Structure formats: C-alpha cells, structure tokens
Amino acid sequence: MKIKVLKNVFQRNDNAARENRELLDARGVTCVNLLGGAGAGKTSLLEAVIPVLRDSLRMGVLEGDLATTKDATRVDALGVPVIQLLTDGGCHLTATLVQQGLRRLPLDGLDMLLIENVGNPICPAGFDLGEHLRISVLSVTEGDDKAAKYPLLFKDADLIVLSKCDLQPLTDFDFNTVTRDLRRINRRAEILQTQARRAIGTEALATWLLDRCRPSSAASRE
Ligand SMILES: Nc1nc2c(ncn2[C@@H]2O[C@H](COP(=O)(O)OP(=O)(O)OP(=O)(O)O)[C@@H](O)[C@H]2O)c(=O)[nH]1
Ligand SMILES: [Mg+2]
Questions:
Q1: What is the DSSP string of 167-203?
Q2: Residue 159 falls inside a structural domain
Q3: Span from the CA of 61 to the centroid of ligand 2 (angstroms)
C-alpha cells in the first residue's frame, strides 16, 4: 500500500521562510518581524517611527490581522506601501502568506520591510517568516509577569520594547522584575522603554532600526 505522507507544517513554513529571506537578501531589504500580544502597541510604534525614518529609509509594511484592514489603513495614512495580510482567523502569520505579500510590494524600491504580526503572545513566535530581525513588544498594562509566562515571545528577539510606560504609575508593573525575567530568557536583546503616544523612546527605536538596515541598501541610496 502506498503510504501517504503529510509534510510537517513547520517544514513547509521553514522552506517558505528561507525563500523569503533569499529574496529579501537579493533585493537588499532588511526585514523586521514585530511581535506582541493583542493591543501591546505595535501599530502605534510603527506610527511613531515611520515618520521619523521615512526620509532616510524607503520602508514598506506587511500588516497581519485576523479579520480587518484597520492597521493597514493607519499605516497607509503615513504614505508608505502597505499590504494587509488576513489570516482568516489564524492566530499568526505564516511565511507562505508573507510570500504572497512580498509579490505585491515594490521590493526593488525598499530598504526596510516591517511586518506587524497578529496580536498574540504565543503562536507568532514559533513561525519564522524570513525576517532578519525580531522585535517583541510587551506593554506595561499586560503585567510584569508576562515575560516569565510567555518566554517564547522574547527568546529570539533582537530588541524587546516595553511599551505604554506612561501608564506604569497606574499599574503595579515592576521594571526590575520584568528585566530580571527577560534576562533569564534572552541575554542579548536590547530592552527599550517607550511611550508612543508622547513620542518618548521612539526616537531610540528609529535609530535602532536605522543602524541595522543592511549596508547594501544604504549604499544603493548614496
Ligand atoms: N497610553 C498609551 N497608550 C498607548 C501607547 N501605545 C499604544 N497605546 C494605545 O493602546 C491601544 C492599542 O494600540 P495599538 O497600537 O493598536 O496596538 P497593537 O499591538 O497594534 O494592537 P493589535 O494589532 O490589535 O494587536 C490603542 O488605544 C493605543 O492608542 C502608549 O505608549 N501609551
Ligand atoms: Mg496593530
């Protein structure tokens, strides 16, 4: 009897992620995957940094969402190319869905691609999209126990943003507790505090992104 083999979903995703990375490398585009729980402040961070970077970097955005185009509409208002990726209820982006988005973006005209993943502190972390960098966002309103409770979200991050810090006085969020837990999970990631609504810390985030944009793309703009 012929044995049916179902290909591992992770294997298929990893293959697509590798293809995405190869395509982005060939075009000299630095790709950043932005992860965090629902409402952690991911789109607000994009709204804060894109206007700061727009004159130095040619940026594009892929917006992940279960059901709406609300975040893509917010990014579109900033005047950068954006594609909405709808997961149709799925709790994370996949590399194959990102692949479809890449086909519709003007990659030759971009230096940096920002991908906002579906708001979820668990599932997106397990799926490589082909990105070069990961930024994980935790808002103070989620609680200082969340690094310990959702370690996978932070394990592979290159940068961890503690967002909505203006609201800290209204909570019992303890920066020492969360920093200690984050350091146990991930020793190398930088940790940055932001207040997107007041544009505090977001300049540092913009600088972090600019510093990591690929040399080849910077050179192509000279
Ligand atoms: N006070 C305060 N509110 C913020 C800050 N950043 C975001 N918010 C608010 O938090 C809410 C959620 O922000 P979004 O940027 O939409 O969060 P998100 O992570 O993109 O949400 P999803 O894409 O739905 O997961 C909004 O009402 C924002 O105005 C901040 O730094 N301070
Ligand atoms: Mg959002």
A1: GGGGS---HHHHHHHHHHH-SSSEEEE-BGGGTBSHH
A2: yes
A3: 12
Q: Which ligand is nearest to the CA of 198?
A: 1
Low-confidence ranges of the chain (pLDDT < 70): 4-7, 214-222
- Residue 222: its pLDDT value, please? 44
The first and second tokens of residue 21, run together, are 């990375």
Nearest atom (ligand 1) to Cα of 198: 31
Please give the pLDDT value at position 219.
Answer: 44
pLDDT computed for residue 8 by the predictor: 73
Would you say residue 44 lies in a domain?
A: yes
In a domain? residue 53 = yes
Supply the pTM of this predicted model. Answer: 0.94
User: What is the C-alpha separation between 164 and 161, in angstroms, rounded?
Assistant: 10
Q: Considering every ligand atom shown, identify the ligand nearest to the alpha carbon of residue 200 and give its number.
A: 1
In short, whether 33's Cβ falls inside 6 Å of ligand 1 is: no
| Class of residue 51 by CB neighbours under 10 A (exposed 0-12, middle 13-18, buried 19+) | middle
Rg, the chain, Cα only: 17
Angle, in degrees to the nearest 10, between helices 95-103 and 9-27 = 30
For 152-199, write each residue's pLDDT tens digit: 999 999 999 999 999 999 999 999 999 999 999 999 999 999 999 999
Domain count, the chain: 1
Distance from C-alpha of 165 to C-alpha of 114, rounded to nearest angstrom: 23
